[in-house]
Design brief:
With about 150 residues, this protein is α+β, with helices and mostly antiparallel strands. It has three helices and nine strands, in the order ααββββββββαβ.
């Protein structure tokens, strides 16, 4: 009985020490790569490894801030099947990428710095995108489609 009690205390202690933001279910959600929600497209925004002092790359869709990608992080968007006007921001400049997404499809985009003052988004393969998602950590997104679940 004492062993069981100790195991429960340790498990609860570990759970209490986890950082806020995303639950373990939400962390695992993206790495399982479930299909997009009905009538939507799944868009993964990823960033590969970066130096510890590298600034995060903020991402927006239209005028809406989506989130920021530090090294080895990713965000999943469930987007309506329309053109997406995505923008990656550096310290002084930004680069736009407009892609049209289709319902039921999954897309992977990578955010990378360009020089010291700009950043860009590029489409990447499923294999590369899935590998980067599995190696990275999910970060929260502010993306809102206007459709309630």
């Amino acid at each position: 009985m004492k062993t069981l009690l100790c195991a429960v205390v340790v498990a609860l202690s570990v759970a209490a020490c986890q950082q806020g933001g995303l639950s373990s279910y939400q962390q695992a959600y993206g790495t399982n790569f479930p299909g997009p929600k009905d009538g939507m497209a799944a868009v993964y925004l990823v960033r590969g490894a970066a130096a510890p002092d590298a600034p995060p790359i903020p991402i927006s869709e239209g005028r809406q801030a989506v989130g920021s990608l530090a090294g080895s992080t990713w965000i999943r968007l469930d987007a309506l099947p329309n053109p997406l006007d995505l923008r990656a921001y550096g310290s002084q400049d930004s680069t736009e990428l407009i892609i049209t997404v289709a319902a039921g499809e999954t897309y992977f985009l990578i955010a990378e710095p360009v020089g010291t003052t700009n950043a860009k988004l590029m489409t990447i393969s499923w294999d590369q995108g899935r590998r980067l998602v599995r190696q990275g950590q999910q970060v929260p997104s502010n993306y809102y489609t206007g459709i309630s679940n």
